[in-house]
């Protein structure tokens, strides 16, 4: 097991294999609190994007922004 600091200052316990996988995928090493906060922000962002431009019956797929 390796101990690594999260950006918030918490210590994260990772085994070497897990750390190498995260680094090879260019992912940040986060504690569970930071990870959960990031996922929550991502979900809120996606919900805002998809709920603002709700598709009505007359819309076509080409009207949806890419």
Summary, kept brief:
The chain is an alpha+beta fold.
Keywords:
single chain, 2 helices, elongated, two-stranded antiparallel ribbon, 66 residues, alpha+beta, 12% strand, 2 strands
Describe, in plain words, how this protein is organized in 3D:
By secondary structure, this protein is α+β, with helices and mostly antiparallel strands. It has one domain (2-51). The protein has two helices and two strands; from the N terminus they run ββαα. A two-stranded antiparallel ribbon has the order 1-2. A hairpin with a 5-residue loop joins strand 1 and strand 2 (11-14). The radius of gyration is 18 Å and the shape is elongated. Residues 58-64 have low confidence and may be disordered.
Strand order of the largest sheet: 1-2
Q: What's the β-strand tally?
A: 2
In terms of DSSP E residues, the strand content is: 5-15%
Mean pLDDT: 81
Which structural category do the helix and sheet elements fall into? alpha+beta
Largest sheet: 2 strands, antiparallel
Rg, please?
18 Å
- End-to-end C-alpha gap: 43 Å
Work out the count of structural domains: 1
Helix content: 40-55%
Low-confidence stretches: 58-64
Order of helices and strands: EEHH
Number of helical segments with 4 or more residues? 2
Gross morphology is: elongated
Summarize the helices and strands and which ones pair or pack.
Blueprint: E1 2-5, E2 11-14, H1 16-24, H2 32-52
Antiparallel strand pairs: 1-2
